[in-house]
Amino acid sequence: MENKIIPYGRQNITEEDLKAxxxxxxxxxxxxxxxxxxxxxxxxxxxxxxxxxxxxxxxxALHLCALALDVKEGTKVITTPITFAASANCIxxxxxxxxxxxxxxxxxxxxxxxxxxxxxxxxxxxxxGIVPVDFGGRAVNLEEFKAxxxxxxxxxxxxxxxxxxxxxxxxxxxxxxxxxxxxADLAIFSxxxxxHIASGEGxxxxxxxxxxxxxLLMLRTHGITKNADCFINTKDFAAGAENQTAYPGWYMEMxxxxxxxxxxxxxxxxxxxxLNRADEGIDRRRAIALKYAEAFTDKxxxxxxxxxxxxxxxxxxxxxxxxxxxxYNYLREHKIFAQIHYIPCHLMPYYRELxxxxxxxxxxxxYYKYCISLPMYPTLTDEEQDFVIGxxxxxYELQS
Length: 400
Ligand SMILES: *Cc1c(COP(=O)(O)O)cnc(C)c1O
Fold this sequence. Notes:
The protein is of the alpha/beta class. It has helices at 15-25, 34-47, 58-68, 86-93, 112-120, 142-152, 210-220, 235-239, 265-275, 278-296, 324-333, 349-353, 362-370, 382-399, and strands spanning 6-7, 51-55, 76-79, 97-100, 129-131, 155-159, 167-169, 175-177, 186-190, 203-207, 224-225, 253-254, 302-303, 317-321, 336-337, 371-374. The chain has three domains: 6-223 and 257-277, Type I PLP-dependent aspartate aminotransferase-like (Major domain) (Aspartate Aminotransferase, domain 2, 3-Layer(aba) Sandwich); 224-254, no CATH class; 279-399, Aspartate Aminotransferase, domain 1, CATH 3.90.1150. Helices cover 38% and strands 14% of the residues. Belongs to the DegT/DnrJ/EryC1 family.
């Protein structure tokens, strides 16, 4: 027991997954084969969106979202500092300005009231978009955000990397799945190994907007289209001959500056195989969360555990703990690799250089002093979780 590393999150690769990958490796396609579309269709169905676009990783997904929404110099976008840096960086890739807004100290999510105050303080048209993050797996109430965004003419990119399978219940009592495209223009997911569904590297954008969907398909592959209905140059030019009635078979056009952000077919096969078990994984995550919550109910050294919140996808199980650095080091001595999510993004040297400073986001900065993410992944055994809980209790007993 003492010798096995317990990380905060890890992938689970089954025999079935291996079979799916090997099958694809033995097929005619390595990249952009039939598995990509199969994965996209299945994923769109899983979250309840019309369209899905598979990509090389979640960061590429964010980048293309920002491009598709025309982020450029002068575009101002609001996001939370308590997220992985990519949520903000995608705006910077396109030359836009990131405006951080503080979290709610209880939910750790972007505080809609703070965003409203920010919007009210400037003339309409100052800001163009919001990137809310379903942080830790807890779904943002996007119905409320959409109402606010509509009022100010803003778009929304939902960063749902932590929350495939998560949801919130809207004002009419309907379940709104993360990434279903109902209350956001675009949503993004990551298939990095610590996330719910692993494909090595990998990402997905989901949307209900056909125009954005078509743009994304082009941006994913160098800005190139092979769809004859969209061609701009003439048939004669395309064929290199006169009086042509059709475009020749080889013809394609690069119409916009795109990237190579494709996922490979064998990664899509892995993602698809993992997606088939996604609900099982969420159930197990919820059971783990419940057990932590029960174990810590009467403990004064811990607060803020997200116990049994409906619709929580539990990518992370975060607590705020006294003597956090002591606890982190003690757990590490016992090969329990808890993690900190996140160092506030606005205080990364890159963003400090852009003018952000300590004191700008008091709730985020205070949260950072105490937060720690405990091991949370479907293959964490009961025995391992007991070991983790036991070590946490021992640490605080030794303190008192
Ligand atoms: C993982 C993650 C990303 C980036 O995804 P990659 O696939 O690692 O590029 C973006 N945002 C959040 C919130 C994430 O957790």
